[in-house]
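Two quick folds needed for the group meeting slides. Do the first one here.
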Amino acid sequence: MIEATTPGGIGQKPIAAVIVGLLFFVVVGLSLVALGLGIGGLIQKQRRKVFAVLGIIFSVVALAMMAFVMVLGQVVS
């Protein structure tokens, strides 16, 4: 996306692209951890399930948004 929107393209190692890529992996990793914790919270007995369900919903939405951004990046370039 950065390549397509920057006039003349981007250089060899632009710091903005590196930071965006690292943040992408951090968000995906944290979403997977949240999904695992949400599933673990649903499995536990005698616990409220509200926060486990909310964690699962938020992590699935975050992962879906990341997948959308990946597809959008492929379509634009």
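Then this one, please, same format:
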Amino acid sequence: MTSRNPVVAVLWLIFAFCNGSGLMILLGAEFLAMMLIVIYVGAVAVLFLFVVMMLDIKFAEVQGELKKNLSIASIIAVIMFADLILIILLGTKSINISNVAFTTPANISNTLAIGKVLYTDFVLPFQAAGLILFVAMIACIALTLRPSTAVKRQNINQQLKRNKDSGMNVTKLGVKQGVQEIQYD
């Protein structure tokens, strides 16, 4: 949020999503972690990055700011690398979470447990959220749709009023008379 460069802000957003997915993997929710990576990083953040890249950004200014903040960035990189090594070294220890209310049994996969909870206990809020998102999508399309005068549109009433007398004009052409000179009713 404090980044002045929008491209860097989107990259920080992608980094935050990856951190969130790493936390979900540590908590044992592998399916949610993959969905976070696939949906948010794969679609939303890339879309943001595409829109931001279409903006006119002065990359000389970005490189100047990068050189100014290189020492801070290297310190943060060393801290994150040390944190990653600490997580890997402590990853062999098991954490007892047997008293948590929503633990899944050992014979059920994470995806099956999420499906059972969503479609049994929380089916009404899940369907209501889907309906709200659907109405919001239709509202966004309706608000941004502008009728264009350059596009020819059908007039169904005019088409239904036509018959063979009004729909076809039979004329005899002269020897040196072209189609452009025919007068239509």
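Slide caption for protein two: The radius of gyration is 31 Å.
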